Amino acid sequence: MQEQLKQLQQEALLKIEEADGLKSLNDIRVAYLGKKGPITEALRGMGKLSAEERPKMGALANEVREAIASKISEKQEQLEKEETEKKLAGETIDVTLPGRPVKKGNRHPITAVVEEIEDLFLGMGYSIEEGPEVEIDYFNFEALNLPKGHPARDMQDSFYITDEILLRTHTSPVQARTMKKYSGQGPVKIICPGKVFRRDDDDATHSHQFMQIEGLVIDEQVSMSDLKGTLEVLAKKMFGEEREIRLRPSFFPFTEPSVEVDVSCFNCGGNGCNVCKGTGWIEILGAGMVHPNVLEMAGFDSKKYQGFAFGIGAERIAMLKYGIDDIRHFYTNDLRFLKQFKRA
């Protein structure tokens, strides 16, 4: 058995030296050191040896096993190093080659409009507030003077998740949450941009999801003239310094009085054309003075504080600003459409 073990050692060491890859080396390891290998088989025959020979054969078998395992480890390290060097040589990078140009994308027209409006109002001392798109009924309706059963709720056909949870139909809940946060202490001066959702049939001018930007100002001396002056600045910034605005009476449950805001047609200068349908004016947003009930529900003393609010549809502004005739262009990801705004 002693001769058999020494012969196995010499045979294994020779094969290890000749191994040309990690796979063949692993096959050698399994063949000689595995449970079914010749060394294991030799050890099983130790039962036939005398009591004096067993310890000597056991020690010799362990020496042979360790010698083979050590050689395998040494060879494995050598093969891994050679493989790494070969791989590095094949992946050499010529750092003198010119880099490939990276194509830059364009800002989406909606993003451009939202950022332009944000920059304008930040410059006027406003802060930007955000809120959850999945909203509770209280902030979406009740805190805005729209109690359950109010007929004006039908104006905003809503996506309800449960009886009390829905996808917000406007960004006004952000105003309600912010007023709560101020705990009845003004001034408040914010805009709230974000996505809103309504159950509407998609067509050229309607979408079930769109961007809205709402503004809110609350202080001790706020009047309708402040609202008009603010909206004039907005209209001139978005459509040109020569633009004028007009206010028409309207109704919104959360403002009183409420107005629809028109801007003089930028296409015909107010003379009448197909863009303004011959009127010389284009409707751009709704606004009004914050309803006393809304102030009171948020903890503000309506006899001390007044405020104004307005809501802008970013898609409508973008359609008018860039002459886009179909709101669906904003959401179909047509690169031919989006690339136009590189030149706009």
Can you summarize this structure?
This protein is α+β, with helices and mostly antiparallel strands and 344 residues long.
Any chance you could write out the topology, listing elements then pairs?
Elements: H1 2-18, H2 22-33, H3 38-44, H4 53-90, H5 109-123, E1 127-128, E2 134-136, H6 137-140, E3 165-167, H7 172-182, E4 188-197, E5 209-219, H8 224-239, E6 245-252, E7 255-264, E8 281-290, H9 292-297, E9 306-313, H10 314-322, H11 335-338
Parallel strand pairs: 1-4
Antiparallel strand pairs: 2-3, 4-5, 5-9, 6-7, 7-8, 8-9
Helix pairs in contact: 1-4, 2-4, 5-10
SSE string, helix = H, strand = E? HHHHHEEHEHEEHEEEHEHH
C-alpha-based Rg, rounded: 39 Å
Q: Would you identify the CATH H-level superfamily of the largest domain?
A: Bira Bifunctional Protein, Domain 2
CATH C-level class of the largest domain is: Alpha Beta
Any idea how many domains? Answer: 2
User: How many H/I helices?
Assistant: 11
In whole angstroms, the N-to-C terminal distance is 90 Å
Give the number of DSSP strands.
9
What is the CATH architecture assignment of the largest domain? 2-Layer Sandwich
Mean of residue pLDDT?
Answer: 86
Examine the coordinates and then state which fold CATH places here, giving the name of the CATH topology of the largest domain: BirA Bifunctional Protein, domain 2
Largest sheet strand order:
1-4-5-9-8-7-6
Protein name: Phenylalanine--tRNA ligase alpha subunit
Coiled coil: 65-92
Main location: cytoplasm
Cofactor: Mg(2+)
